[in-house]
Structures are given as structure tokens and as C-alpha cells.
Amino acid sequence: MKGGVELLLLLLLWSVESSSLSPPGKPVLLGCRSPEKETFTCWWKPGSDGGLPTEHHLYYERERLEGTHECPDYRSAGSNSCFFDRKHTSIWVDYVLTVVASSALGNVSSDPLKFDVMEIVKPYAPENVTLVVEERPESPHLHVTWKRPSNTDPRSGWVTIKYQLRVKQENNNDWKSYTSGTQTSFSLYSVSPGAAYLVQVRCMLDHGSWSEWSNSTLVKIPNYVQSQRPFQMLVSIFSAVPVVAALCVLVTKWKYVKLCLLPPVPGPKIRGVDVQLLKSGQSEDVLSALIVSQNFPSAVTRKDQMEDYVVVSDSSEWLLPASSKSQKKKKSLIIPAGFHLDSKLQWKASSQAEESRNETSDLEPPQLPSQKQTFSGANSAAANLHTGAPEKPVQPLANNGYVDIQRQESMQVDYSRVKEVNGDDVLILQKETLSVDVQRRERRGSEDYSRVKEVSSDSVVLLQRQNDCFCKEKGNHCCTNQTPRIPHVTGPSSVCTDLSGHSWTSEDTPSETQSGTSSQL
Amino acid sequence: MVDRVAVGAVWPVLVGLVFCGELTTVDAAPLCTNAQAGCHVLSLANLFDRVIQHSARMHGISNDLHSEFELYFLPSKNQIGRVSRNCHTSTILTPNGKENAQRMAREELTEVILKLLVAWRDPLWHFHQGLAHHHDFNNFSSNKSLEMSDMVHELRKGVQKVVEKMQTLGIISNSISSLASPEVLLASNSAEWRLMKDYDLLYCFRRDSNKVQNYLKILKCRIVPEHGC
């Protein structure tokens, strides 16, 4: 009996010795965490138990709290943890925690852990992360929504939650992060149709640590672009048709289009210049046509240049077939623009001429309506030459005959240089030519020309027969002794014969007969 | 004879009171009335948002500075003997949790905020001075400390404006003691903070700035909850 008990004890001792039981190993405090800044939990890792059942106890000290206290709750947070509820949690005070492992062979304390709850704030991940694909024809986007962690309380202002989310494509490994601020929703616009995306969200309280990432949510963007293609094609076709049509029209009717868009530029037009004259190419004519000089030259008649003649006839033979033209066309006289209506411009004429001129006064011509054409501008002056002394017979003109105008007493203003009759009273003469006594002209008006029926060729002027009775009717001094003046027409050339207002040039060759110049003034 | 002495004593006292009264009112700038031209009237919610943002920034800076100091000094956090940290503001009673803060009256909470801000003005200024002379620290820290010191000053003025606005709106009573209260003055003049080491000072300020931020947010969501609570 005694031997059996001793044997058992020996066996026990031997077994104990051989199993090398030891006091418990030192536990390690892993850390603490406060998910909402109102409670916190601490975890530790126990050391080896040394073969014996060991117990762990957590003790803490706190600032502004006397004594050492033990953990209020070992269970709520799982094994090897300690949960501090609201009653036991104080912010902005230091905690010092220690875990003691105790077994039959002794106690071992861990290293103390000192912290302030404000430093260990780390929330849980956001909840209910939902992804919705917003399908809009132009821009599909991904709308992400989530909920704050359930235990936090931002409404009282105790904590401010900030969120962050990250996105990546299914096959990719590149996450792209976005900050959402305090909003619990976010819209992602950079999504491509047909791809699948993974989204995760996390949050942070005040200045604490970030939470873990939420679970990944997968979403696939549908591929709906194809359904839009026929529509787009139709639209593009319909818009192209009018464009093509417009192009065709443009190409075929190019000329009209060109005319419409780029109208031809009208040629230059110089007042007083006859294009035909320029074309005919007589240099002298051109020069004279173009010269518009203010300085009227001294009124010196050069005898040699006053070889003008005018055909005066009162027979109707001289009615040229072009008479009809004269009715319609306006004849014009071109007068040098520098013509000064100036009494200075005098005829230097023989005294005889002077006298004769003085004697004569312009007949007040009856303006025969059929013949009358008003002077107005270069192209509209009608040359009505007043013939004087219709009673005086005029020899009919031969083909190239001239009339000795001198026969007619009525003398004559030299109209050779008349270039233009401007208005009733104004004659504009050429530069080199003699001046006409315009003043007298003025006084008498255009009556002097009233007799001209037609100027039909270079040297032919058809005058109207002046009826006495007509004169009488008028009751003016047209029927006095005064004879009308008849312009000298110098040279056979370029008496105004047509509408274009040729000048009556005076540059005739000196070889012109002087016979007709006795009527010079 | 007694009368003359009394009068002689009263007169300078009166003058002194008037003078002091003027001094104390200098700090508080008048709020705009509605009709003043060029004066933008801020709502109470707006004012609250501004001071809260300000306090958040202040706390962020103090956090950064504290981390920097930890890098340099690596103090042992687990010294058992340092359970009771000797912050010079320990004398000011502050709520330690959400419920406590919510239970506190508005006036009390506001006073606590102001007391804290007043208490930190001088210590931070001296801390910055000390840092500027110390060439161990880089300019970054020195700038941050200056910024921190300025911010405390500005934040105090901002909170005062909020208080005035609340008082004009009748939200809180006028029972908040003026800033010239003796206990406050004592707190800032106490030499306790001079004994604190730089690291401890930074730690204490980090904590107090967090308190100020939280208290302001609680006040705001209690008084003007419609904006962002």
C-alpha cells in the first residue's frame, strides 16, 4: 500500500519534471482601436502558457483616476481582448494598460501600453457600397453610393467623416483613387462601355487613421454603342445629301455663281472723256480729251489754228439720213474745263470782227421745240447753232466744201474750241483754243446754237432756218440785226458730230486755207 | 474730511474703470448691422464654419509638429511615472467625452473654449521664440510654431465674434465672463508652463486643440444644425 502511493508520487514528480512546465510567457499588447471615438478595444497576444492553464488579466491606470483597474469586459470583443464601453472611456486622457499572464507557476506582465483615445481612432469600412450604371446616350457614368459606418455619429458634430474611393478595371492592377469629402456618393465619368470595374471605399474620422477598404463591388458597363450606329449613319447620310447637291450645283453653274459672287468690276469712267475717242487712238485727241486744266490759257487766237469752218445751209438737202439720230441723240460739245467765264478772255480778233460782233447780238432764237436740246453736261449738250441772217443765202456745201462764214455778217464767236456746253450759258473750250467770249455767251444764252439742227460730220453743221415770224412771235431781239454767232470750226476733223462729245479741235494744220478765216474774231 | 478723501479716492477709480472698460472693448470689433454699406453680414452658421475650419487647421499643425518632435527626441512613451501629464491647462475642467460635452450648457462650453484659447497664447509664443533661437530645428518647424501661435490668437478673436453674435441673437445669455476675468489671467501668467518641456508642451497643445475643435463642432450642431451636421 505504502509502496503504491510512493510510486504514484514519484511518477507524478517525474512526469512533471519531464514535461518541463514553466511559468507563462510574457503576453504582448497588440494595440487598441476606437472605431467611433466613444469606445475602444484592446487586443493582446498571449505568450506560451508553459504547459499550465494560464489566465490573462488586463489592468489599467488612467489620468485623473486613482488606482489600478481591471478591464470591464473581456468577452464582447472576442478572446484575448478587452472592450471599454462608454462609461469607461474618456478622451483626452492617458491610459496605461498592462496584461498579466498568471498560471500556477507565476505571473508575467506585459510591457505597458500608453495612449490617448484620440490617437487610436480608426473607423470601420463604409457599408452598402452600391454601383449603378447611369446610361445616357452621350456619356455613360458610374454612380457609386455607400453608407457611413453604422456606429459613427456625425450628426452631433462629434466626428467628421471623410471618404475615399478607388477604382480599377477587372483585368488591370492599377487603382485610381478619388476623394469624396463628406459626401456619401460619387460619380465616375471615365468609364468605357464593355469594361468591368471594381470599386472600393474607405473612410477616416477627423485626424485619425483610414479604415480598411470595403469589399470590392464589380459592375459591368453594357455595350450599347452599336445600337446607336445605324441612327448615326442615317443622320450623317441625310446631312450629306444637301451638301453634295450644293456642290453639284456649284460646279455646274460656276459661271453664274462667279458672276453673282464676284461681279465684274466696271471700267473706269472719266468725266468728259470719250472711250471711243481713246480707242480711235488719235493721240492729240486723247490728250485733249484728258487735259482738264484749270489754267485757261490766254485768249490768243492763233490765226493759223482757226481754220474752222462750219457748214451752214438752209436747204433741206443737208438733212442727212442721220437726222433721226440727231433727234434722239444728244450732241455734245466738249469744252475745256478750264474755261473761265471771264471777261478777260477776249477774242483777239480783228477789229472788224469785233465790230461785227458788237453789232451783232445774239439773236434770241426761238427755240424750236423740235430742235431744241438743252445743254447739260458733256453728253447732253445740244448744239443749236444760231445761224445768223437766215436770209443770207448759204451756198450749199459740196462734198468737202466749206462755207465761207464770213459772208454772213453775223459774226461769230469762235466756237472752234468749244469743248462742252455746260448748261445754258457755259461753254467750255479746249485749252489751246481761243476763248469764246463767254460772257456774251452768258448773256445771250444758248440761243446762238438754237439754229443748229444737226451736226452731221466733221465740218458740217446743219442750221435751222430761222423764220422771221417765229422771231416776231418771240418778240425778242432775235430778229435784230444782230447775228448769231457761229462758232468757228477749226479743221475738218473732230467737230462734234456725235454724242460722244468730240471736241472741236483747233490743231489743224496750218495748211488749211486761210480763206475761211476772215471771219476770225 | 472723510468726504474729501472718499471723493479723492473715487475719482481716480472711476477714471480707471472707464479706461479699463475702453481697453477691454477695444478687442471686440463691432459687428455689422444690416444697413452698413460694404459690410458683409455673416450668418451664425457661416461664422461657426469658419472657426471650425480654423481650429481644424490649428490641430493639424500641432499634430505635425508633435510628430516631428517625436522623430527627434523619441521619448519613451511608456514611462509609468508619467501617467499624469502636467499640462498647465489641467486646472480648466473640460468634458472628457461626447455625452459629457453634450450635457454641458452652451454658455459653459463656450467659456471652456475661450479659457483654453486664452491659456495657450503666451506659452506658444514663448515656445516659438525658443525654437527660433534653437538651431537644431529647421525652418519648417519654426514657421509652423509661429503659425500655431498666430492661429491661437486669431481663433480666440473668431470665437469671441461667434459669442457676440450668439448673444445678440439671444441664443445664449450674457453670463459669459469677460476675458479679463482674474482666473483666466492667472492661468496665462502662471509659471507652470515654463517648466514644461517642449515635447510635453506640444503634446498638451495637441490635445487641447483637439478639444477646442470638438467642442466647437458640438456647439454648432446644437445651435445651427441645418448646415453640415
From TrEMBL, chain A:
GO terms for cellular component: external side of plasma membrane; receptor complex. Gene3D superfamilies: Immunoglobulins. Residues 1-18 form the signal peptide. It comes from the Eukaryota. Residues 369-382, 491-521 have a biased composition (Polar residues). Residues 350-397, 489-521 are annotated as: Disordered. Its main location: membrane. Belongs to the type I cytokine receptor family. Type 1 subfamily. This is a receptor for the anterior pituitary hormone prolactin. This is Prolactin receptor. It comes from Stegastes partitus. The lineage of its organism: Eukaryota, Metazoa, Chordata, Craniata, Vertebrata.
From TrEMBL, chain B:
Its main location: secreted. Pfam families: Hormone_1 (PF00103). GO terms for biological process: positive regulation of receptor signaling pathway via JAK-STAT; response to nutrient levels. The gene is LOC103356682. GO terms for molecular function: hormone activity. Residues 1-28 form the signal peptide. The keyword Ribosomal protein does not apply. GO terms for cellular component: extracellular space. Belongs to the somatotropin/prolactin family. It comes from the Eukaryota. This is Prolactin-like. Keywords: Disulfide bond, Hormone, Secreted, Signal. It is found in: Secreted. It comes from Stegastes partitus (bicolor damselfish). The keyword Signal applies.
